[in-house]
Specification:
Chain lengths: 469, 423
């Protein structure tokens, strides 16, 4: 994505244009602005053998979007540029008509340009629109053809419906450990970042072990409000507290004979840790509001994305419980440390999700692969699965292309292209881009972003204001 | 720190209410938990809040509170001065203004007190114009608070006074309010007759007809009379467009979307909702409408099996509701997120219902809201095979519906109980 000022004037020569599925010519929908400039745009589009339609107001444009197929939308922004940009990006994403948005704004700020880039806007033009810039933007959209990489064959290490995918050396080490613990009923602690597949591994251990025919019960300790977690784990008698409308059998009891998977165990409060320790040591529990101890026989598998050792040192996690849980510790690797497992996983999810949505996807475009490889994948396999699912849902051909990428990833595809076109950045632009990226990664939390950037939060706040981010 | 932990540090004092609302507004989905397995079940209590962010907002917040107090104090001083000058009408207007201001700030109990004070003054006047308006306002407020009997009483009195005063405009307003009360109580025939009476009096004058037609269209849709609903809403839309009433357009389009859904025309419904969002942005309370329309969008996605979209819309609605202090909407949002979890067979989705019930209690919302949540919660349990829990929540909902004379709700509970084989 570039602003019009950075574009060299190109001559309208031969036009190898890419039409939409339903027409032989590209169709452009322009929204907003005045009628007179729109007539110029129509003529310039016609020179490129493209169809052009203009709508003065958004409601009419929304109806047109729903009624016809469009190759691109050109939106002329008014005074509330930021809001309109977000709205259009959101609308085109949901409407699933076209991914190509050309934004036109009066004196666009650097902040607007960065946000447009992040949202995957094809081009940002300055008003009044020049013929050269307009036609260059259309040509760029037309020339965005992609070649595909066939999906590699995947051989999942499947146990029941749960598949472990990957052939990297780090995953082979995990498989070896799994083979050792599966045959036993030893308590296992799974450690790894969020999204590395701890629950899949826990289910695999259960299904490969001697208790496979008995229940596997998972409890997400971080999701459940603190005041409800005790009754969730141990159950409660009817009327034990407000809202206890019926007797409840707790997860420990539900898992009798099978496996209890305590996910995010690092989030447990100290009082609850003590109660779990007692249940593990004495092999019996008491329902909330109940008087009778109930014997339980469960295999425990715990998981955490916290550094439990540090939590021990800080007094946030009981040492005795830690040693009860960490009889066998399995560390799950980050996705970025798994090399080409990324492609295998992408292929596995594409097939799996494609089947669910009734879509046949046979390849990933090379540009998509480049984007996937360049991601830091803070959310690991869960994030990858999420991205692939979003892509499969919107895909309209047998190849997953850049158009199918979620907006926040499409921006990443554009940045190298900008550089390739020779658009060298100023120091301020680079700084603004980096701040934007860090803010996106920290979900807009200024404190966390300032910490990563190594500057004071007041300095960051000032820069955000200065750059209009 | 998690919101649930931070809230424990706030005593339940009225003076801290704006700070509590601000705490929710600045809360965020913690980056560390963004990709954690718990992220799918994130509720407001599990969001993160930073003391430093809250501190940054303190000055603005105190300024906001101070502005609010200034308006209230000035209203009192205005009322005192007006009374000193023997201008009771002006004094009543000052007190009424404060009440309306409190309603806008969501301080309904306080608004009640202002209306009460104004009504006491109005009783001294021989001219009943001020009293009938105050009664209607207090009736509308009681409706918001779920006090239907009190709401009906006030609006009936307002209507009687308006008729005695030959004040057609006030008669129409009272008719509309009475229609709203009957509708919420599930008495659609009564609601229809009040709206029709209001419409008959108003004729073809301005957007008020649009609003009455919109209400009538909604009622027709609720009784599955699609043809009537379509015709009424088309007419409503013409009035709203002619009167450039953006909020009216947004609500009419949203209602038309629901009519399309009833006909199975999901693409058309989507178009209506998207257009409604555009109009909502031009209205006086865009956040309110946006939240409402996003909830409708998520319902549509849920019905169509597009769960990712449903969740995305609900999360956007949640964000908007939190950012704009529309915490009441969170009850519906979390109930829908719970339903979504149930469809996906996610047992942990119970956290959404629990959060909805907790918010209902904290915000002191009407018991019927709790009954609606319990009904959805029972269906969640039923889908997961927890028959006992499902029955218990159905019975809890049924008791409330019956106590409040909500026949349609009680009937739904009876149907569900029959389905479980226990009725």
């Amino acid at each position: 994505m570039t602003t019009s000022e950075q574009q060299p004037i190109e001559h309208a020569g031969a036009l190898p244009l890419v039409p939409t599925a339903s027409t032989s010519r590209m169709r452009i929908l322009a929204v907003g602005g005045e009628a007179a400039p729109a007539s110029h745009l129509r003529r310039w589009a016609d020179e490129l053998e493209m169809d052009f339609e203009w709508s003065s107001d958004i409601p009419q444009a929304v109806r047109l979007l729903a009624e016809k197929q469009w190759s691109a939308v050109l939106a002329v922004f008014g005074e509330r540029q930021d809001e309109e940009l977000t709205w259009w990006a959101d609308t085109l994403r949901v409407a699933n008509v076209t991914r190509h948005l050309i934004a036109v704004a009066d004196r666009p700020s650097m902040g607007l340009a960065l946000r447009a880039e992040r949202l995957g806007v094809s081009d940002l033009l300055t008003r009044p629109v020049r013929r050269e810039a307009f036609q260059a933007a259309l040509r760029r959209i037309a020339s965005e053809t992609e070649t595909g990489l066939p999906l590699p064959a995947v051989q999942p290490h499947a146990v029941g419906p749960y598949a472990l995918v990957g052939e990297s050396p780090v995953m082979l080490d995990v498989y070896k450990l799994l083979a050792r613990v599966s045959a036993t009923t030893v308590t296992v602690l799974l450690q790894g970042e969020s999204g590395t597949g701890k629950e899949v591994v826990a289910r695999t251990i259960h299904l490969s072990g001697p208790r496979a025919a008995r229940p596997f019960v998972a409890v997400n300790c971080a999701a459940i409000p603190e005041n409800l977690l005790e009754s969730e784990l141990f159950g409660h008698e009817k009327g034990a507290f407000t809202g206890a409308v019926a007797r409840k059998i707790g997860r420990f009891q539900q898992a009798t004979g099978g496996t209890l998977f305590l996910d995010e165990v690092g989030d447990l409060s100290l009082p609850l840790q003590a109660k779990i320790l007692r249940a593990v040591q004495e092999r019996e529990i008491e329902r909330v509001g109940g008087a009778e101890p109930i014997p339980v026989d469960v295999r425990l598998i715990a998981a955490t994305n916290h550094d439990l050792r540090a939590a021990l040192d800080a007094g946030r996690f009981r040492e005795d419980l830690y040693y009860r849980l960490a009889v066998m510790v399995i560390e799950l690797p980050r996705l970025v440390d798994r090399g080409d497992d990324l492609l295998l996983l992408a292929a596995f999810f594409t097939n799996h999700i494609g089947e669910r949505y009734g879509k046949r996807i046979t390849s990933l475009s090379h540009r998509v692969v480049d984007v996937l490889r360049s991601r830091p994948w803070n959310g690991n396999v869960r994030e990858l699965r999420n991205v692939i699912e979003r892509m499969v849902v919107v895909a309209r051909s047998e190849m997953l292309s850049v158009e199918d990428l979620p907006p926040e990833l499409r921006g990443e595809d554009k940045m190298p292209a900008d550089r390739a076109r020779g658009g060298l950045l100023t120091l301020a632009e680079t700084e603004a881009r980096h701040i934007t990226r860090v803010l996106a990664e920290t979900a807009g939390q200024v404190g966390a972003a300032a910490e990563i950037l190594g500057i004071h939060r007041n300095t960051l706040t000032r820069k955000i204001r200065e750059y209009g981010l | 720190m998690k919101v649930e932990q931070a809230l424990r540090l706030l005593p339940n004092l009225e003076a801290l209410a704006p700070l509590r609302a601000q705490l929710l507004a600045v809360s965020r989905a913690d980056e560390r938990t963004r990709w954690a397995s718990a992220a799918a079940y994130l509720t407001v209590g599990k969001r993160a809040v930073e003391g430093a962010t809250l501190r940054e907002r303190l000055d603005g917040l105190v300024e906001q509170v101070s502005t609010h107090l200034r308006v209230l104090y000035r209203s009192v001083v205005d009322a005192i001065e007006a009374q000193e000058a023997g201008e009771t009408h002006r004094a009543i207007a000052a007190l009424q203004r404060a009440g309306v201001f409190e309603v806008r700030a969501g301080r309904y109990r306080q608004a009640e007190a202002w209306y009460e004070a104004a009504l006491n003054l109005a009783a001294e006047l021989s001219d009943r114009g001020a009293e009938l308006e105050l009664l209607r306002l207090r009736g509308a407020l009681s409706l918001t608070l779920g006090q239907y009997a009190a709401a009906a009483r006030d609006c009936q009195r307002s209507l009687a006074l308006a008729e005695a005063e030959f004040n057609d405009s006030a008669v129409i307003a009272a008719c509309e309010e009475l229609g709203n009360i009957h509708r919420v109580m599930g008495e659609s025939a009564g609601a229809q007759s009040w709206y029709e009476r209001g419409l008959g009096l108003n004729g073809t004058h301005g957007v008020r007809s649009g609003w009455l037609l919109l209400r009538l269209g909604d009622l027709a849709r609720e009784r599955d009379d699609i043809r009537a609903a379509t015709a009424l809403l088309d007419r409503a839309r013409e009035y709203m467009r002619a009167g450039a009433d953006a909020a009216g357009m947004a609500q009419t389009l949203s209602a038309q979307g629901q009519v399309h859904i009833a006909q199975g025309h999901h693409a058309a419904a989507l178009g209506c909702y998207r257009e409604a969002l555009v109009w909502a942005r031009q209205g006086p309370e865009p956040a309110n409408l946006e939240v409402d329309i996003r909830i409708r969008l998520s319902e549509l996605a849920l019905e169509s099996g597009r769960w990712l979209e449903a969740e995305a819309d609900l999360r956007q609605a949640e964000q908007a509701a939190l950012a704009h202090g529309l915490t009441r909407s969170l009850v519906e949002i979390y109930t829908l997120l719970g339903r979504l979890s149930g469809r996906e067979g996610e047992e942990t989705g119970f956290v959404f219902f629990e959060q909805a019930l907790e918010l209902r209690a904290v915000l002191e919302l009407d018991a019927l809201v709790e009954a609606d949540v319990c009904l959805a919660y029972s269906q969640f349990h039923s889908a997961l095979g927890n028959v006992d829990a499902s029955r218990a929540y159905l019975e809890r909902a049924g008791e409330t519906y019956q106590a409040r004379g909500q026949a349609s709700g009680a009937e739904r509970v009876h149907r569900e109980l029959s389905r479980l084989g226990v009725a």
